[in-house]
Design brief:
The chain has about 250 residues and is mainly β. The chain is built from no helices and 22 strands.
């Protein structure tokens, strides 16, 4: 059953700039295969106002990576190596490494949907067009995937290509109003409730670009996932203009 998207507006001070963020915790999720109903990635809910560049890092209860407000062309692309998860014997946790575009009317993305449910682990490739998620195919730890998403007023497109297995699928649909991109981790919800963070070492992100230019040239803002004052996931510094890692810090 589709879950309802909820948004809460938060105001975060970064240096002397006020940044408006909208926090959501649900996605529209179709009935996925093998009975995994109700599991999905959360939307990229940061709200950096177009044209405002923030140089200090942000903290978010759901997201980790780098946020960008593209000046014109709204696209995001990256290469990601899927990490091995260590599942606890109980509880629901997950990560969603990928690329995301967010607008006031919805979000689109391409990502790996990796999660633990009571000790059982699932690795899928998934994509979403205007908040509606589709499971594309199964992936494995160690696989290298290329994820990309683009949006115009007339069309949205999301692709996951597993370079290791050769599998590739593309979704497309109606356009949207995306004003922000996120490269990194989107988090995972279970029945509309945000899950925790599973244990893993880190995963590398490379060849990352937003708006047709290398991530490091697109005025990126680092985003740490936090629970209260505890950092759960943290992006490393960008190297080579387009690469970084998302590092596990705490469950």
């Amino acid at each position: 059953m589709p879950a309802r998207l909820s948004r809460v507006v938060l105001v975060v001070a970064a240096t002397t700039v006020a940044v408006v963020m909208a926090a959501g915790s649900a996605v529209a999720t179709p009935s996925p295969p093998r009975g995994r109903a109700g599991t999905g990635a959360i939307p990229p809910v940061l709200r950096l106002r177009p044209g405002v560049q923030v140089t200090s890092g942000l903290k978010n209860p759901e997201l980790a990576g780098y946020a960008v407000t593209p000046s014109a062309l709204v696209t995001a692309k990256a290469t990601i190596k899927i990490p091995l998860l260590a599942c606890a014997p109980s509880g629901e946790t997950g990560i969603a490494p990928g690329v995301w575009l967010d607008g006031f009317d919805g979000w689109s993305g391409a990502y790996a949907l990796q999660y633990c449910t009571n000790g059982q682990v699932t690795y899928d490739a998934a994509a979403a067009i205007n908040t509606a998620q589709t499971i594309l195919f199964t992936v494995k730890p160690g696989d290298t995937i290329v994820v990309s998403v683009s949006q115009t007023a007339g069309k949205s497109v999301a692709t996951v290509h597993d370079l290791t297995s050769g599998m590739s699928k593309t979704l497309s649909g109606a356009g949207g109003d995306a004003t922000q991109a996120l490269v990194g981790d989107g988090g995972v919800t279970f029945g509309g409730v945000l899950g925790g963070v599973p244990r893993f070492k880190s995963y590398p992100v490379s060849s990352a670009s937003v708006g047709g230019q290398p991530l490091g040239s697109a005025h990126p803002v680092s985003v740490e996932r936090v629970k209260g004052k505890t950092v759960q996931l943290m992006p490393t510094a960008i190297t080579g203009g387009n690469a970084f890692k998302v590092v596990f810090k705490h469950t």
